[in-house]
Write a structure and sequence with these properties.
Elements (H helix, E strand, L loop, with lengths): L2 H11 L10 H4 L9 H18 L1 H6 L4 H8 L6 H9 L1 H5 L2 H24 L5 E4 L10 E9 L6 E9 L5 E8 L2 E2 H34 L1
Antiparallel strand pairs: 1-2, 2-3, 3-4, 4-5
Length: about 220
């Protein structure tokens, strides 16, 4: 996945505080007893942006501190078990329990650091939510949005969420301009698994994460 795509993804996910809530009223008919997926994203973003604003000088001087911010506030809204299973595809079923656990851990850290790095340089875009089309009993849905920047055509951003057994909405994929985060990583990791095996991919991810921590 290109750096520009990752930066855009991170910025969009963490900047919903500047959005237009065109579809918010529609949501009430989708899951009246569950938490609101729009509010889930909005409130998460508001917390992150408030922290960034109040600690701007501190985070600029010590960028590593932003990792904990992303880890604590943003990523709990993701289902990394489901994401990891989808990213590995057929290789997930072949993996041992320890391999699955190791992959989830390293993949999660990779995304933490990707989002955190991008957030430090986030400049802010306006994001508009589009009307939501989902039946009242929906257990999975997509929140369709588009990014608007002056002088550029809108970029579609789709958030895939599902309702878990506790009535909480979890993000398991994000699609930017037709490019799925899960599909993109699945393609990249699949080629590495064929070359290095799953154990080799996990080791490479662990090495990359360790270098990021040490750096």
């Amino acid at each position: 996945m290109s750096r520009s795509l990752l930066n855009l993804l991170a910025g969009l996910l963490l900047s919903i505080g500047t959005t237009l809530y065109a579809a918010e009223a529609t949501l009430a008919a989708v899951a009246p007893v569950a938490e609101d997926p729009f509010n889930l994203v909005r409130e998460t973003a508001d917390r992150v942006l408030a922290e960034i604003s109040s600690r701007k000088e501190e985070l600029t001087e010590s960028p590593g501190k932003i990792y904990g911010l992303v880890d604590d506030i943003v990523l709990p809204k993701f289902d990394f078990y489901r994401m990891s299973r989808l990213v590995l595809g057929k290789y997930w079923r072949r993996a041992t329990d320890p391999e699955q656990a190791s992959f989830i851990r390293e993949f999660r850290e990779l995304l933490v650091r990707t989002y955190a790095t991008a957030l430090l340089s986030y400049s802010g875009q306006q994001i508009e939510y589009l009307p939501l089309h989902a039946p009242p009993e929906a257990k999975q849905l997509k929140v369709n949005t588009q990014v608007k920047e002056p002088g550029s055509p809108p970029i579609p951003i789709d958030y895939s969420l599902y309702l878990d057994d506790e009535g909480k909405w979890k993000v398991y994929d994000v699609t930017i301009d037709g490019v799925s985060l899960v599909s993109n990583y699945r393609s990249s990791f699949s080629s590495q698994i064929r070359r290095y095996k799953l154990s080799g991919l996990i080791k490479r991810l662990a090495d990359r994460n360790r270098r990021s921590r040490d750096g």
